[in-house]
């Protein structure tokens, strides 16, 4: 039986990555750091999972002679970036991706639990959910985030933590991801993965996902099928997920 859907956040629930990029650039400017991350450059940096880890990677690779001093400033830089990200998000730039709200509501009404497994920090998740579910009926039963996992994706830690908190077997859930590292993380945790390609993961190989689509689709606005399982009418629904999952379990038996 399908008991849970586990979602990544950045690029999966919402197209957040460019807001993170803008937040970093605003922080750099405010702190008089002569850095600017273009969309193209940030796409490369996103191969490193986690905002703090991304910043360390950038400092070590592009400013090694100042690395020690710059790393000491990391909490200041990242905290300021988080503040600017929040301001950008609250200005209207943080809506859910196509099909997400519909599928979340179907799962909630259908008795399927919802969870988050992400490398982003908890305040960013709380903001996303507060802005998109303002009535207080936050639908996610479990949130595994940021520094709660010993290792970032592609290690399985964060998905394994979400599964543990749900109290289920990995075979009883489906993971939703948008990146190659995220897919590897979910698979390593024993979860089948449905991939929805995002703005910043257009170049990623989505190997391992049992289905890959442009987004979850909406009635009258179907998604683009990329590879693997094909969804009726170009829309991922709870009923269609249950049908696939039941067949998947029979095939694995």
TrEMBL record:
<dbReference type="InterPro" id="IPR023198">
    <property type="entry name" value="PGP-like_dom2"/>
</dbReference>
<dbReference type="InterPro" id="IPR006439">
    <property type="entry name" value="HAD-SF_hydro_IA"/>
</dbReference>
<keyword id="KW-0378">Hydrolase</keyword>
<dbReference type="Pfam" id="PF00702">
    <property type="entry name" value="Hydrolase"/>
</dbReference>
<protein>
    <submittedName>
        <fullName>HAD superfamily hydrolase (TIGR01509 family)</fullName>
    </submittedName>
</protein>
<dbReference type="InterPro" id="IPR036412">
    <property type="entry name" value="HAD-like_sf"/>
</dbReference>
<dbReference type="GO" id="GO:0016787">
    <property type="term" value="F:hydrolase activity"/>
</dbReference>
<dbReference type="InterPro" id="IPR023214">
    <property type="entry name" value="HAD_sf"/>
</dbReference>
<dbReference type="InterPro" id="IPR044999">
    <property type="entry name" value="CbbY-like"/>
</dbReference>
């Amino acid at each position: 039986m399908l008991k849970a859907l586990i979602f990544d956040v950045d690029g999966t629930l919402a197209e957040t990555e460019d807001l993170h990029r803008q937040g970093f650039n605003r922080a750099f400017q405010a702190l008089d750091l002569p850095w600017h991350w273009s969309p193209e450059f940030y796409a490369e940096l996103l191969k490193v999972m986690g905002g703090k880890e991304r910043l360390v990677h950038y400092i070590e690779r592009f400013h090694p002679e100042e690395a020690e001093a710059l790393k000491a400033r990391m909490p200041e830089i990242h905290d300021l970036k988080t503040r600017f990200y929040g301001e950008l998000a609250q200005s209207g730039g943080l809506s859910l991706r196509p099909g997400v709200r519909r599928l979340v509501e179907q799962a909630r009404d259908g008795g399927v639990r919802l969870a988050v497994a992400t490398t982003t920090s908890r305040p960013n998740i709380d903001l996303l959910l507060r802005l998109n579910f303002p009535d207080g009926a936050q639908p996610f039963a479990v949130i595994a985030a940021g520094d709660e996992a010993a290792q970032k994706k592609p290690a399985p830690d964060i998905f394994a933590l979400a599964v543990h908190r749900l109290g289920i077997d990995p075979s009883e859930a489906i993971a939703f991801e948008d990146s190659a590292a995220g897919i590897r993380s979910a698979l390593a945790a024993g979860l089948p993965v449905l991939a929805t390609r995002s703005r910043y993961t257009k170049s990623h190989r989505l190997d391992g996902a049992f289905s890959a689509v442009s987004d979850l689709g909406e009635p009258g606005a179907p998604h683009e099928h990329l590879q693997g399982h094909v969804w009726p009418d170009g829309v991922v629904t709870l009923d269609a997920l249950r049908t696939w999952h039941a067949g998947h379990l029979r095939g694995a038996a």
